[in-house]
Amino acid sequence: MKPSKLLTLLGCAGLCLGRSLDGPEAKTSVVKRSNSSADPMLQLSSDPDFHFELLRTLSLAPYEGADAGEVLVAASKIAPGDFEGYSAAFHGLASRVDAAARAIDGRRHSISARNAFSKAASYYRAADFFLHGNWSDPRIEYLWTAQLAAFDAAMALMAVPGERVTLGAGPGDNFTIPAIFFASGRPRPQPTLVVCNGFDGSQEEILHGVGQAALQRGFNVITYEGLGQPAVRRRQGLGFIPQWEKVARPVVDYALSRPEVDSRAIVLVGYSFVGFLAPRAAAFDDRVAAVIAIDGLYDFGQSLLSDLGPSLAHLSKAGNATRFNAVVDKALASPSAPTALRWVVQQGMWSFHVASPFEWLSRAAAFGLADLARHITVPVFVADAENEQFFAGQAKVLADKLGPLATYHRFKSVDGAGEHCSIGASVLSNQVSLDWLEDVLSREGVPPRDGETGV
Ligand SMILES: *[C@@H]1O[C@H](CO)[C@@H](O)[C@H](O)[C@H]1NC(C)=O
Ligand SMILES: *[C@@H]1O[C@H](CO)[C@@H](O)[C@H](O)[C@H]1NC(C)=O
Ligand SMILES: *[C@@H]1O[C@H](CO)[C@@H](O)[C@H](O)[C@H]1NC(C)=O
Ligand SMILES: *[C@@H]1O[C@H](CO)[C@@H](O)[C@H](O)[C@H]1NC(C)=O
User: Fold this and answer.
1) 236 or 18, which is more confident
2) Can you give the chain as a three-state secondary structure string?
3) 331-355 pLDDT per residue, tens
4) Which of 84, 132, 134, 332 has most ligand 2 atoms within 8 Å of its beta carbon, as the pocket-test mutant?
5) Is pLDDT of 310 > 50?
6) Which residue's CA is the closest to the ligand 3 atom numbered 7?
7) The ligand 2 atom nearest the CA atom of 137
8) Residue 202, pLDDT score
9) Across 95-106, average pLDDT
10) pLDDT 10s digits, 35-90
11) 174 lines ligand 3 (CB under 6 A)
Protein backbone atom coordinates (compact mmCIF):
# COMPACT_ATOMS: atom_id res chain seq x y z
CA MET A 1 0.00 0.00 0.00
CA LYS A 2 2.32 1.97 1.14
CA PRO A 3 2.84 0.93 -0.45
CA SER A 4 4.64 1.72 -0.22
CA LYS A 5 4.93 5.12 0.10
CA LEU A 6 7.37 7.35 -0.79
CA LEU A 7 7.13 10.19 -0.59
CA THR A 8 6.04 12.93 1.26
CA LEU A 9 8.47 12.03 3.33
CA LEU A 10 10.38 13.47 0.93
CA GLY A 11 8.05 16.21 0.70
CA CYS A 12 8.53 17.16 4.14
CA ALA A 13 11.84 15.94 4.39
CA GLY A 14 12.97 17.82 1.45
CA LEU A 15 11.45 21.04 2.50
CA CYS A 16 13.25 20.80 5.74
CA LEU A 17 16.52 20.06 4.08
CA GLY A 18 16.08 22.84 1.65
CA ARG A 19 15.50 25.27 4.42
CA SER A 20 18.34 24.10 6.54
CA LEU A 21 20.63 24.72 3.61
CA ASP A 22 19.40 28.21 3.26
CA GLY A 23 20.76 29.61 6.48
CA PRO A 24 18.38 32.12 7.99
CA GLU A 25 15.37 29.89 7.60
CA ALA A 26 17.03 27.01 9.36
CA LYS A 27 15.22 27.59 12.61
CA THR A 28 11.87 26.95 10.98
CA SER A 29 13.07 23.65 9.72
CA VAL A 30 10.35 21.42 11.08
CA VAL A 31 7.86 21.29 8.29
CA LYS A 32 4.79 19.15 8.56
CA ARG A 33 4.30 16.64 5.86
CA SER A 34 0.73 17.58 5.38
CA ASN A 35 -1.25 20.77 5.78
CA SER A 36 -3.03 19.77 8.95
CA SER A 37 -5.32 22.79 8.91
CA ALA A 38 -6.66 21.39 5.64
CA ASP A 39 -6.85 17.85 7.02
CA PRO A 40 -10.01 17.28 9.04
CA MET A 41 -8.79 13.93 10.41
CA LEU A 42 -8.00 13.36 14.09
CA GLN A 43 -4.23 12.78 14.32
CA LEU A 44 -2.96 9.61 16.00
CA SER A 45 0.41 11.19 16.79
CA SER A 46 1.82 14.69 16.74
CA ASP A 47 4.46 13.18 14.45
CA PRO A 48 2.80 13.33 11.00
CA ASP A 49 4.66 10.30 9.71
CA PHE A 50 3.76 8.23 12.75
CA HIS A 51 0.15 9.32 12.26
CA PHE A 52 0.29 8.04 8.70
CA GLU A 53 1.85 4.70 9.60
CA LEU A 54 -0.46 4.13 12.58
CA LEU A 55 -3.43 4.90 10.35
CA ARG A 56 -2.05 2.46 7.82
CA THR A 57 -2.07 -0.39 10.33
CA LEU A 58 -5.47 0.68 11.67
CA SER A 59 -6.76 0.60 8.09
CA LEU A 60 -6.29 -3.15 7.90
CA ALA A 61 -9.16 -3.60 10.40
CA PRO A 62 -12.09 -3.78 7.92
CA TYR A 63 -10.36 -6.70 6.19
CA GLU A 64 -9.28 -8.82 9.17
CA GLY A 65 -5.75 -7.44 9.45
CA ALA A 66 -6.02 -5.43 12.68
CA ASP A 67 -8.26 -4.48 15.58
CA ALA A 68 -8.72 -0.75 16.07
CA GLY A 69 -8.40 -0.86 19.86
CA GLU A 70 -5.14 -2.78 19.82
CA VAL A 71 -3.57 -0.32 17.40
CA LEU A 72 -4.76 2.67 19.41
CA VAL A 73 -3.34 1.25 22.65
CA ALA A 74 0.01 0.65 20.94
CA ALA A 75 -0.14 4.19 19.50
CA SER A 76 -0.58 5.63 23.00
CA LYS A 77 2.81 4.21 24.02
CA ILE A 78 4.82 5.73 21.16
CA ALA A 79 6.62 9.04 21.53
CA PRO A 80 6.92 11.19 18.38
CA GLY A 81 10.07 10.39 16.42
CA ASP A 82 11.01 7.38 18.58
CA PHE A 83 11.72 4.59 16.07
CA GLU A 84 12.74 2.14 18.80
CA GLY A 85 9.62 2.89 20.80
CA TYR A 86 7.47 2.37 17.72
CA SER A 87 9.04 -1.01 17.11
CA ALA A 88 8.81 -2.07 20.76
CA ALA A 89 5.13 -1.16 21.08
CA PHE A 90 4.17 -3.23 18.05
CA HIS A 91 6.57 -6.05 18.83
CA GLY A 92 4.98 -6.44 22.25
CA LEU A 93 1.51 -6.39 20.76
CA ALA A 94 2.44 -8.85 18.00
CA SER A 95 3.92 -11.33 20.47
CA ARG A 96 0.83 -11.24 22.66
CA VAL A 97 -1.63 -11.61 19.79
CA ASP A 98 0.51 -14.36 18.25
CA ALA A 99 0.53 -16.29 21.54
CA ALA A 100 -3.23 -15.85 21.80
CA ALA A 101 -3.63 -17.14 18.24
CA ARG A 102 -1.58 -20.22 19.02
CA ALA A 103 -3.71 -20.93 22.08
CA ILE A 104 -6.85 -21.15 19.95
CA ASP A 105 -7.83 -24.62 18.77
CA GLY A 106 -7.91 -23.87 15.05
CA ARG A 107 -9.83 -27.04 14.24
CA ARG A 108 -12.76 -25.93 16.38
CA HIS A 109 -12.44 -22.16 15.98
CA SER A 110 -10.83 -21.69 12.61
CA ILE A 111 -12.08 -18.17 11.93
CA SER A 112 -10.96 -16.92 15.33
CA ALA A 113 -7.52 -18.43 14.84
CA ARG A 114 -7.28 -16.98 11.34
CA ASN A 115 -8.24 -13.51 12.53
CA ALA A 116 -5.73 -13.58 15.40
CA PHE A 117 -2.84 -14.83 13.23
CA SER A 118 -3.62 -12.18 10.61
CA LYS A 119 -3.47 -9.44 13.22
CA ALA A 120 -0.23 -10.76 14.70
CA ALA A 121 1.35 -10.70 11.23
CA SER A 122 0.30 -7.07 10.71
CA TYR A 123 1.77 -6.04 14.06
CA TYR A 124 5.09 -7.79 13.35
CA ARG A 125 5.28 -5.82 10.10
CA ALA A 126 4.55 -2.58 11.96
CA ALA A 127 7.33 -3.45 14.43
CA ASP A 128 9.77 -3.78 11.53
CA PHE A 129 8.77 -0.65 9.66
CA PHE A 130 11.19 1.92 11.10
CA LEU A 131 14.21 -0.37 11.52
CA HIS A 132 15.88 -0.28 8.10
CA GLY A 133 18.54 2.30 8.94
CA ASN A 134 20.87 -0.42 10.22
CA TRP A 135 21.08 -3.26 7.73
CA SER A 136 22.66 -5.61 10.29
CA ASP A 137 19.82 -5.26 12.77
CA PRO A 138 18.75 -8.88 13.31
CA ARG A 139 15.16 -7.79 13.89
CA ILE A 140 14.81 -7.06 10.15
CA GLU A 141 15.04 -10.80 9.58
CA TYR A 142 13.48 -12.02 12.81
CA LEU A 143 10.32 -9.90 12.63
CA TRP A 144 9.82 -10.83 8.99
CA THR A 145 10.10 -14.54 9.68
CA ALA A 146 7.55 -14.09 12.45
CA GLN A 147 5.14 -12.16 10.23
CA LEU A 148 5.41 -14.77 7.47
CA ALA A 149 4.75 -17.63 9.91
CA ALA A 150 1.72 -15.90 11.41
CA PHE A 151 0.37 -14.92 7.99
CA ASP A 152 0.80 -18.44 6.63
CA ALA A 153 -0.99 -19.88 9.65
CA ALA A 154 -3.89 -17.51 8.91
CA MET A 155 -3.83 -18.23 5.19
CA ALA A 156 -4.14 -21.98 5.77
CA LEU A 157 -7.43 -21.28 7.55
CA MET A 158 -9.06 -19.33 4.72
CA ALA A 159 -12.17 -20.82 3.10
CA VAL A 160 -9.97 -21.28 0.02
CA PRO A 161 -6.39 -21.21 1.34
CA GLY A 162 -3.90 -19.04 -0.50
CA GLU A 163 -1.16 -20.90 -2.35
CA ARG A 164 2.44 -19.64 -2.22
CA VAL A 165 4.49 -20.01 -5.39
CA THR A 166 7.98 -18.91 -6.40
CA LEU A 167 8.18 -17.77 -10.02
CA GLY A 168 11.33 -17.70 -12.11
CA ALA A 169 12.27 -14.53 -13.98
CA GLY A 170 12.82 -14.38 -17.73
CA PRO A 171 16.00 -15.48 -19.52
CA GLY A 172 19.02 -13.51 -18.33
CA ASP A 173 17.34 -12.31 -15.15
CA ASN A 174 18.72 -13.86 -12.00
CA PHE A 175 15.96 -13.47 -9.44
CA THR A 176 12.76 -15.15 -8.32
CA ILE A 177 9.36 -13.67 -7.59
CA PRO A 178 7.43 -14.73 -4.50
CA ALA A 179 3.69 -14.73 -5.20
CA ILE A 180 0.48 -15.99 -3.66
CA PHE A 181 -2.54 -17.23 -5.58
CA PHE A 182 -5.90 -16.65 -3.90
CA ALA A 183 -8.63 -18.43 -5.87
CA SER A 184 -12.10 -16.97 -5.93
CA GLY A 185 -13.59 -20.40 -5.23
CA ARG A 186 -16.09 -19.87 -8.07
CA PRO A 187 -16.60 -22.64 -10.62
CA ARG A 188 -15.89 -20.75 -13.87
CA PRO A 189 -12.68 -18.89 -14.79
CA GLN A 190 -12.84 -15.46 -13.18
CA PRO A 191 -11.28 -12.03 -13.62
CA THR A 192 -8.03 -11.75 -11.69
CA LEU A 193 -6.30 -8.92 -9.91
CA VAL A 194 -2.51 -9.08 -10.04
CA VAL A 195 -1.63 -6.90 -7.08
CA CYS A 196 1.63 -5.31 -6.01
CA ASN A 197 2.17 -3.17 -2.93
CA GLY A 198 4.48 -0.12 -2.96
CA PHE A 199 7.86 1.24 -1.91
CA ASP A 200 7.83 -0.42 1.50
CA GLY A 201 4.73 -2.64 1.56
CA SER A 202 4.43 -6.41 1.50
CA GLN A 203 2.14 -8.76 -0.36
CA GLU A 204 0.82 -9.93 3.00
CA GLU A 205 -0.32 -6.43 3.91
CA ILE A 206 -2.18 -5.91 0.66
CA LEU A 207 -4.38 -8.98 1.24
CA HIS A 208 -6.00 -6.89 3.99
CA GLY A 209 -6.61 -4.01 1.61
CA VAL A 210 -7.75 -4.60 -1.92
CA GLY A 211 -7.12 -8.39 -1.68
CA GLN A 212 -10.02 -9.30 0.59
CA ALA A 213 -12.22 -6.69 -1.09
CA ALA A 214 -11.65 -8.36 -4.47
CA LEU A 215 -12.17 -11.88 -3.10
CA GLN A 216 -15.47 -10.76 -1.57
CA ARG A 217 -16.52 -9.67 -5.06
CA GLY A 218 -15.55 -12.97 -6.68
CA PHE A 219 -12.24 -12.03 -8.31
CA ASN A 220 -9.15 -14.20 -8.07
CA VAL A 221 -6.21 -12.36 -6.55
CA ILE A 222 -2.52 -12.87 -7.16
CA THR A 223 -0.14 -10.88 -4.98
CA TYR A 224 3.58 -10.72 -5.64
CA GLU A 225 6.76 -8.91 -4.67
CA GLY A 226 9.55 -7.78 -6.94
CA LEU A 227 13.07 -6.46 -6.46
CA GLY A 228 13.36 -3.94 -3.64
CA GLN A 229 10.24 -5.20 -1.93
CA PRO A 230 10.27 -6.83 1.50
CA ALA A 231 10.90 -10.52 0.81
CA VAL A 232 13.08 -10.10 -2.29
CA ARG A 233 15.20 -7.43 -0.65
CA ARG A 234 15.73 -9.63 2.40
CA ARG A 235 16.17 -13.05 0.84
CA GLN A 236 17.86 -12.15 -2.45
CA GLY A 237 19.55 -8.87 -1.53
CA LEU A 238 18.17 -7.10 -4.60
CA GLY A 239 16.96 -3.50 -4.86
CA PHE A 240 14.35 -1.84 -7.07
CA ILE A 241 14.80 -1.74 -10.83
CA PRO A 242 12.74 0.45 -13.19
CA GLN A 243 12.15 -2.41 -15.65
CA TRP A 244 9.14 -3.74 -13.77
CA GLU A 245 7.97 -5.67 -16.84
CA LYS A 246 10.71 -8.16 -15.93
CA VAL A 247 8.82 -8.76 -12.67
CA ALA A 248 5.19 -8.47 -13.78
CA ARG A 249 5.46 -10.52 -16.99
CA PRO A 250 6.26 -13.83 -15.24
CA VAL A 251 3.34 -13.19 -12.88
CA VAL A 252 0.99 -12.70 -15.83
CA ASP A 253 2.45 -15.89 -17.41
CA TYR A 254 1.63 -17.67 -14.18
CA ALA A 255 -1.91 -16.24 -14.08
CA LEU A 256 -2.49 -17.54 -17.60
CA SER A 257 -1.35 -21.01 -16.53
CA ARG A 258 -4.12 -21.25 -13.94
CA PRO A 259 -7.47 -22.70 -15.05
CA GLU A 260 -9.27 -20.43 -12.54
CA VAL A 261 -8.16 -17.31 -14.46
CA ASP A 262 -10.22 -15.72 -17.23
CA SER A 263 -7.48 -14.76 -19.69
CA ARG A 264 -9.52 -11.78 -20.96
CA ALA A 265 -9.58 -10.14 -17.56
CA ILE A 266 -6.14 -9.85 -16.00
CA VAL A 267 -5.78 -6.55 -14.20
CA LEU A 268 -2.58 -5.03 -12.82
CA VAL A 269 -3.07 -3.20 -9.53
CA GLY A 270 -0.28 -1.06 -8.06
CA TYR A 271 -0.09 0.96 -4.88
CA SER A 272 2.02 4.01 -4.21
CA PHE A 273 5.43 3.57 -5.91
CA VAL A 274 3.88 0.74 -7.93
CA GLY A 275 1.40 3.35 -9.19
CA PHE A 276 4.31 3.96 -11.60
CA LEU A 277 5.70 0.43 -11.90
CA ALA A 278 2.36 -1.25 -12.76
CA PRO A 279 1.46 1.18 -15.59
CA ARG A 280 5.02 0.76 -16.88
CA ALA A 281 4.62 -3.05 -16.91
CA ALA A 282 1.32 -2.69 -18.78
CA ALA A 283 3.15 -0.74 -21.50
CA PHE A 284 5.07 -3.96 -22.24
CA ASP A 285 2.30 -6.54 -21.93
CA ASP A 286 -0.75 -6.64 -24.17
CA ARG A 287 -2.28 -9.50 -22.19
CA VAL A 288 -3.29 -7.05 -19.47
CA ALA A 289 -6.91 -5.85 -19.69
CA ALA A 290 -6.80 -2.86 -17.32
CA VAL A 291 -4.66 -1.14 -14.69
CA ILE A 292 -5.51 0.34 -11.31
CA ALA A 293 -2.94 2.83 -9.96
CA ILE A 294 -3.49 3.98 -6.37
CA ASP A 295 -2.18 6.54 -6.50
CA GLY A 296 -0.98 7.28 -10.01
CA LEU A 297 2.70 8.18 -10.41
CA TYR A 298 4.28 9.42 -13.62
CA ASP A 299 7.86 10.29 -12.73
CA PHE A 300 9.33 9.21 -9.42
CA GLY A 301 12.75 10.77 -9.90
CA GLN A 302 11.25 14.13 -10.80
CA SER A 303 8.84 13.98 -7.88
CA LEU A 304 11.65 13.15 -5.48
CA LEU A 305 13.73 16.07 -6.70
CA SER A 306 10.89 18.51 -6.37
CA ASP A 307 10.15 17.22 -2.86
CA LEU A 308 13.77 17.72 -1.88
CA GLY A 309 13.57 21.39 -2.69
CA PRO A 310 15.68 23.56 -4.97
CA SER A 311 18.88 23.60 -2.89
CA LEU A 312 19.23 19.85 -2.66
CA ALA A 313 18.03 19.32 -6.19
CA HIS A 314 20.71 21.72 -7.35
CA LEU A 315 23.36 19.96 -5.27
CA SER A 316 22.29 16.63 -6.65
CA LYS A 317 22.44 17.86 -10.23
CA ALA A 318 25.89 19.34 -9.60
CA GLY A 319 26.98 15.73 -9.16
CA ASN A 320 29.28 16.11 -6.15
CA ALA A 321 28.35 12.97 -4.24
CA THR A 322 30.62 13.74 -1.28
CA ARG A 323 29.07 17.11 -0.73
CA PHE A 324 25.50 15.92 -1.26
CA ASN A 325 25.89 13.01 1.15
CA ALA A 326 27.50 15.23 3.76
CA VAL A 327 24.57 17.64 3.65
CA VAL A 328 22.01 14.87 3.93
CA ASP A 329 23.92 13.09 6.70
CA LYS A 330 24.13 16.32 8.65
CA ALA A 331 20.41 16.90 8.29
CA LEU A 332 19.68 13.34 9.40
CA ALA A 333 21.91 13.67 12.43
CA SER A 334 20.02 16.69 13.69
CA PRO A 335 17.73 15.92 16.62
CA SER A 336 15.01 17.90 14.86
CA ALA A 337 15.21 15.87 11.65
CA PRO A 338 11.63 14.93 10.87
CA THR A 339 10.68 11.28 11.00
CA ALA A 340 9.62 11.44 7.38
CA LEU A 341 13.09 12.48 6.26
CA ARG A 342 14.96 9.96 8.39
CA TRP A 343 12.68 7.18 7.34
CA VAL A 344 12.59 7.88 3.62
CA VAL A 345 16.36 8.15 3.23
CA GLN A 346 16.93 4.97 5.28
CA GLN A 347 14.19 3.07 3.46
CA GLY A 348 15.25 4.44 0.09
CA MET A 349 18.84 3.26 0.50
CA TRP A 350 17.76 -0.11 1.89
CA SER A 351 15.14 -0.86 -0.75
CA PHE A 352 17.32 0.31 -3.66
CA HIS A 353 20.25 -1.51 -2.06
CA VAL A 354 22.60 1.45 -2.40
CA ALA A 355 25.24 2.80 -0.06
CA SER A 356 24.50 6.52 -0.10
CA PRO A 357 21.70 9.07 -0.49
CA PHE A 358 23.37 10.42 -3.63
CA GLU A 359 23.38 7.01 -5.25
CA TRP A 360 19.74 6.52 -4.33
CA LEU A 361 18.72 9.79 -5.90
CA SER A 362 20.77 9.06 -9.00
CA ARG A 363 19.06 5.71 -9.44
CA ALA A 364 15.64 7.25 -8.89
CA ALA A 365 16.03 9.36 -12.03
CA ALA A 366 15.36 6.31 -14.22
CA PHE A 367 11.94 5.68 -12.67
CA GLY A 368 9.71 7.70 -14.99
CA LEU A 369 7.22 6.76 -17.69
CA ALA A 370 8.17 9.46 -20.21
CA ASP A 371 7.60 8.13 -23.72
CA LEU A 372 6.45 4.73 -22.44
CA ALA A 373 3.03 6.12 -21.50
CA ARG A 374 1.97 6.06 -25.16
CA HIS A 375 2.44 2.28 -25.23
CA ILE A 376 -0.32 1.83 -22.67
CA THR A 377 -3.46 0.90 -24.57
CA VAL A 378 -5.90 -0.24 -21.88
CA PRO A 379 -8.16 1.60 -19.40
CA VAL A 380 -6.33 2.87 -16.33
CA PHE A 381 -7.93 3.94 -13.06
CA VAL A 382 -5.75 6.75 -11.72
CA ALA A 383 -6.40 7.60 -8.08
CA ASP A 384 -5.22 10.82 -6.51
CA ALA A 385 -5.49 12.08 -2.94
CA GLU A 386 -6.44 15.61 -1.93
CA ASN A 387 -3.83 15.72 0.82
CA GLU A 388 -1.19 13.73 -1.13
CA GLN A 389 1.99 13.85 0.91
CA PHE A 390 4.47 12.09 -1.33
CA PHE A 391 3.78 12.52 -5.01
CA ALA A 392 1.77 15.71 -5.21
CA GLY A 393 0.54 16.42 -8.73
CA GLN A 394 1.86 13.17 -10.18
CA ALA A 395 -1.46 11.35 -10.56
CA LYS A 396 -2.88 14.20 -12.59
CA VAL A 397 0.15 14.18 -14.89
CA LEU A 398 -0.27 10.43 -15.46
CA ALA A 399 -3.98 10.85 -16.20
CA ASP A 400 -3.29 13.70 -18.63
CA LYS A 401 -0.64 11.70 -20.48
CA LEU A 402 -3.02 8.75 -20.81
CA GLY A 403 -5.83 10.94 -22.10
CA PRO A 404 -9.14 9.14 -22.67
CA LEU A 405 -7.73 5.84 -21.38
CA ALA A 406 -7.55 7.29 -17.88
CA THR A 407 -10.29 7.56 -15.33
CA TYR A 408 -8.97 10.11 -12.84
CA HIS A 409 -10.48 10.09 -9.34
CA ARG A 410 -9.40 12.45 -6.59
CA PHE A 411 -10.24 11.10 -3.13
CA LYS A 412 -11.23 13.81 -0.66
CA SER A 413 -10.00 14.70 2.79
CA VAL A 414 -13.53 15.37 4.01
CA ASP A 415 -14.28 11.68 3.35
CA GLY A 416 -11.21 10.61 5.34
CA ALA A 417 -9.69 9.54 2.04
CA GLY A 418 -7.33 12.43 1.30
CA GLU A 419 -4.13 10.75 2.55
CA HIS A 420 -1.59 9.12 0.23
CA CYS A 421 -3.21 5.98 -1.28
CA SER A 422 -6.39 6.93 0.58
CA ILE A 423 -4.93 5.31 3.66
CA GLY A 424 -7.68 5.04 6.25
CA ALA A 425 -10.40 4.72 3.63
CA SER A 426 -9.75 1.33 2.08
CA VAL A 427 -13.45 0.43 1.99
CA LEU A 428 -14.24 3.58 0.00
CA SER A 429 -11.15 3.24 -2.19
CA ASN A 430 -12.09 -0.36 -3.05
CA GLN A 431 -15.71 0.63 -3.66
CA VAL A 432 -14.79 3.27 -6.22
CA SER A 433 -11.93 1.45 -7.96
CA LEU A 434 -13.50 -2.02 -8.08
CA ASP A 435 -16.89 -0.67 -9.23
CA TRP A 436 -14.99 1.09 -12.02
CA LEU A 437 -13.26 -2.19 -12.89
CA GLU A 438 -16.49 -4.19 -12.96
CA ASP A 439 -17.99 -1.61 -15.33
CA VAL A 440 -14.91 -1.66 -17.58
CA LEU A 441 -14.85 -5.45 -17.74
CA SER A 442 -18.54 -5.72 -18.49
CA ARG A 443 -18.17 -3.19 -21.33
CA GLU A 444 -15.47 -5.48 -22.72
CA GLY A 445 -17.83 -8.45 -22.63
CA VAL A 446 -16.44 -10.22 -19.55
CA PRO A 447 -19.39 -11.89 -17.83
CA PRO A 448 -20.15 -10.71 -14.30
CA ARG A 449 -19.19 -12.89 -11.38
CA ASP A 450 -21.94 -15.17 -10.05
CA GLY A 451 -23.18 -12.92 -7.28
CA GLU A 452 -21.38 -11.93 -4.13
CA THR A 453 -20.93 -14.51 -1.45
CA GLY A 454 -18.36 -12.88 0.77
CA VAL A 455 -15.42 -14.74 2.23
C1 LIG B 1 -3.55 24.97 4.44
O2 LIG B 1 -4.94 24.80 4.26
C3 LIG B 1 -5.70 25.94 4.56
C4 LIG B 1 -7.19 25.57 4.50
O5 LIG B 1 -7.49 24.91 3.29
C6 LIG B 1 -5.32 27.04 3.57
O7 LIG B 1 -6.06 28.22 3.85
C8 LIG B 1 -3.85 27.34 3.71
O9 LIG B 1 -3.44 28.28 2.75
C10 LIG B 1 -3.03 26.06 3.52
N11 LIG B 1 -1.62 26.33 3.82
C12 LIG B 1 -0.64 25.88 3.05
C13 LIG B 1 0.73 26.21 3.52
O14 LIG B 1 -0.83 25.23 2.03
C1 LIG C 1 23.62 -2.26 13.89
O2 LIG C 1 23.12 -3.45 14.48
C3 LIG C 1 24.15 -4.32 14.89
C4 LIG C 1 23.47 -5.60 15.34
O5 LIG C 1 22.52 -5.35 16.34
C6 LIG C 1 24.94 -3.67 16.00
O7 LIG C 1 25.98 -4.52 16.41
C8 LIG C 1 25.54 -2.36 15.47
O9 LIG C 1 26.18 -1.68 16.51
C10 LIG C 1 24.44 -1.48 14.88
N11 LIG C 1 25.06 -0.35 14.23
C12 LIG C 1 24.72 0.91 14.50
C13 LIG C 1 25.41 1.97 13.73
O14 LIG C 1 23.85 1.18 15.33
C1 LIG D 1 22.33 -15.83 -9.44
O2 LIG D 1 22.14 -15.43 -8.10
C3 LIG D 1 22.64 -16.35 -7.15
C4 LIG D 1 22.18 -15.91 -5.77
O5 LIG D 1 22.01 -14.52 -5.67
C6 LIG D 1 24.14 -16.45 -7.31
O7 LIG D 1 24.66 -17.36 -6.38
C8 LIG D 1 24.45 -16.89 -8.72
O9 LIG D 1 25.85 -16.88 -8.92
C10 LIG D 1 23.81 -15.98 -9.74
N11 LIG D 1 23.97 -16.53 -11.07
C12 LIG D 1 24.32 -15.80 -12.12
C13 LIG D 1 24.40 -16.51 -13.43
O14 LIG D 1 24.51 -14.58 -12.02
C1 LIG E 1 33.00 18.09 -3.66
O2 LIG E 1 32.64 18.60 -2.40
C3 LIG E 1 33.66 18.45 -1.44
C4 LIG E 1 33.07 18.81 -0.07
O5 LIG E 1 32.27 19.96 -0.14
C6 LIG E 1 34.85 19.31 -1.84
O7 LIG E 1 35.89 19.17 -0.90
C8 LIG E 1 35.33 18.81 -3.22
O9 LIG E 1 36.35 19.66 -3.68
C10 LIG E 1 34.20 18.81 -4.21
N11 LIG E 1 34.65 18.16 -5.43
C12 LIG E 1 34.51 18.71 -6.63
C13 LIG E 1 35.00 17.89 -7.79
O14 LIG E 1 33.96 19.80 -6.79
Assistant:
1) 236
2) CCCCCCCHHHHHHHHHHHHHHCHHHHHHCCCCCCCHHHCCCCCCCCCHHHHHHHHHHHCCHHHCCCCHHHHHHHHHCCCCCCHHHHHHHHHHHHHHHHHHHHHCCCCCCHHHHHHHHHHHHHHHHHHHCCCCCCCCCCHHHHHHHHHHHHHHHHHCCCCCCCEEEEEECCCCCCCEEEEEEECCCCCCCEEEEEEECCCCCCHHHHHHHHHHHHHHCCCEEEEECCCCCHHHHHHHCCCCCCCCHHHHHHHHHHHHHCCCEEEEEEEEEEECCHHHHHHHHHHCCCCCCEEEEECCCCEHHHHHHHHHHHHHHHHHHHCCHHHHHHHHHHHHHCCCCCHHHHHHHHHHHHHHCCCCHHHHHHHHCCCECHHHHHHCCCCEEEEEECCCCCCCCHHHHHHHHHHHHEEEEEECHHHCCCCHHHCCCHHHHHHHHHHHHHHHHHHCCCCCCCCCCCC
3) 999 988 999 999 999 999 999 999 9
4) 134
5) yes
6) 174
7) 2
8) 98
9) 98
10) 555 678 999 999 999 999 999 999 999 999 999 999 999 999 999 999 999 999 99
11) yes
Answer whether residue 34 shows pLDDT above 90.
no
For residue 171 and ligand 3, the question of a CB distance below 6 A is answered with no
Q: How far is the CA of 142 from the centre of ligand 2 (A)?
A: 15
